[in-house]
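Retry 2 of 3 after timeout on previous attempt. Resubmitting C-alpha cells to design endpoint.
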C-alpha cells in the first residue's frame, strides 16, 4: 500500500515460485504448505489492490508454477528450460503474457521463443551492454519484430494450442488459432539451414474450411503455400535458414 501511495500503478513480485521455505527449527507445528497458501493469497490481495486504484494496473511475477498463476498478468523467467514445460502455461493461460529472457548467447532458443508467441526480454551482455553491441543478434531481433507485426492477426491475436493437429520433422513447430484462421510457426535452433516437413490435419483445428495460406519467412519473403495431400492431412515442405523462424498463415476460406 505504501508503494502504491507513491503513485506507482503496478507491481513486480520477485521469485514468486519458491520450493523451500525457511521455518524456525523450534516451530515443528508450522506447515510449509500454509506458508505457501498465505504467500499466494497475498499475491492476489496485492494485485487486486493495485487494480482497484488503477484499472490499467498489472502484476509481474518471476517463475510461474501451478499455484501462483491466478493473480499474475505477466510472467518471466531467466530460463524457460525451468520449468521445462513453458507450453503448459501458455496453453492453459492464454490471457497471460509470457516474457522469455534472451541474449546473444541464446541464439538456438531465440527462434523457439518467438515461435511459441512469447515476448522477448532482451538482456544483451548479461544486462550490462547495448543491443547494438551484438549486431547479428540485433538484426535478428529486428527481423522477428517485423515478422510478428506482419502476422499479428494470426499469432499475437491468436491462442497457442501447442502441436494440435501438427507434426513437424526437421524443426520445432507450434499452432495458433485465431478469428482469422490458423497459424503454424516454425523455429530452427541450429546454425545451418534445415529442410522441414510439416504435416497438418486441418479437421483437428476447425470445422470451418481453410485456405492454403502463405509462408512468411524471417528474411521478409512471403510465398504462397502449396501443401500436398487431401482433406485429412496436408504436407508442406519448408527450408529454414540457420537460427531462423517462419510462419505459415492459413486464413479461413473466404477471408483475404
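Retry 2 succeeded. Sequence:
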Amino acid at each position: 500500500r505504501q508503494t502504491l501511495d507513491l503513485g506507482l500503478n503496478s507491481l513486480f513480485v520477485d521469485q514468486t515460485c519458491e520450493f523451500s521455505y525457511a521455518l524456525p527449527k523450534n516451530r515443528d507445528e508450522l506447515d510449509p504448505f500454509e506458508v505457501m497458501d498465505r504467500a499466494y493469497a497475498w499475491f492476489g490481495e496485492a494485485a487486486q489492490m493495485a487494480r482497484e486504484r488503477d484499472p490499467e494496473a498489472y502484476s509481474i511475477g518471476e517463475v510461474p508454477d501451478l499455484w501462483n498463476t491466478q493473480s499474475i498478468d505477466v510472467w518471466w523467467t531467466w530460463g524457460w528450460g525451468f520449468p521445462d514445460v513453458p507450453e503448459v502455461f501458455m496453453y492453459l493461460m492464454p490471457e497471460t503474457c509470457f516474457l522469455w529472457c534472451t541474449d546473444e548467447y541464446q541464439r538456438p532458443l531465440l527462434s523457439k521463443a518467438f515461435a511459441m508467441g512469447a515476448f522477448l526480454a532482451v538482456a544483451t551482455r548479461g544486462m550490462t551492454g547495448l543491443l547494438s553491441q551484438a549486431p547479428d543478434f540485433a538484426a535478428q531481433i529486428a527481423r522477428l519484430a517485423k515478422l510478428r507485426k506482419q502476422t499479428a492477426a494470426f499469432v499475437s491475436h491468436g491462442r497457442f494450442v501447442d502441436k494440435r493437429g501438427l507434426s513437424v520433422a526437421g524443426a520445432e513447430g507450434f499452432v495458433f488459432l485465431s478469428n482469422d484462421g490458423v497459424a503454424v510457426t516454425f523455429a530452427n535452433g541450429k546454425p545451418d539451414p534445415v529442410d522441414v516437413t510439416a504435416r497438418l490435419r486441418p479437421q483437428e483445428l476447425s470445422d470451418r474450411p481453410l485456405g492454403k495460406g502463405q509462408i512468411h519467412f524471417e528474411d521478409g519473403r512471403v510465398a504462397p503455400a502449396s501443401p500436398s495431400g487431401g482433406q485429412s492431412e496436408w504436407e508442406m515442405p519448408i527450408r529454414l535458414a540457420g537460427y531462423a523462424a517462419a510462419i505459415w498463415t492459413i486464413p479461413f476460406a473466404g477471408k483475404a
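Attempt log closed. The radius of gyration is 21 Å.
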